[in-house]
Amino acid sequence: xxxxxxxxxxxxxxxxxxxxxxxxxxxxxxxxxxxxxxxxxxxxxxxxxxxxxxxxxxxxxxxxxxxxxxxxxxxxxxxxxxxxxxxxxxxxxxxxxxxxxxxxxxxxxxxxxxxxxxxxxxxxxxxxxxxxxxxxxxxxxxxxxxxxxxxxxxxxxxxxxxxxxxxxxxxxxxxxxxx
Length: 179
Prior knowledge:
- The structure is a single chain.
- By secondary structure, the protein is of the alpha+beta class.
- The protein has two domains: about 5-100, Helix Hairpins; about 105-170, no CATH class.
- It is built from seven helices and five strands; from the N terminus they run αααααβββββαα.
- The chain has helices at about 5-20, 30-55, 60-65, 70-90, 95-105, 160-165, 170-175; strands spanning about 115-120, 125-130, 135, 140-145, 145-150.
- The chain has a three-stranded antiparallel β-sheet, with helices on one face.
- It starts with 5 loop residues before the first helix and ends in a 5-residue tail after the last helix.
């Protein structure tokens, strides 16, 4: 079963209804959402314990019983519990995760900055600016001296890079509002 599939989403809805009924709560009761958040907190604690086991930081008696599979299962528990909370709150988790990934991918980082641009062929290309201020070559374009050319249509990306740099605020000005 694929995460985000119709079958998966129906299973989440079913599980939310089942949990609410067993707790004698309604799905829209704020207490139900807070109880799910408490469950996420519990699962994160268990994941933390497994991470300690993964790197050998448990007491010897616990360490000898630790198995990597526990880490995988606890990570899945955190994700599933989070998806259940999103279902309770009527949040399209797949949509918001995709939106957030776009925001993350376009954040400037110290020593490296990425930006998206498009070519005449319609392809969206992610460009990365290296520590020396130049574009770093990737699988979507070739570097010819100071020029970066799309591999499909030969659009020159260097001018788009210059336009991007002219419109970019310094990193310290863009930090406000980051989460």
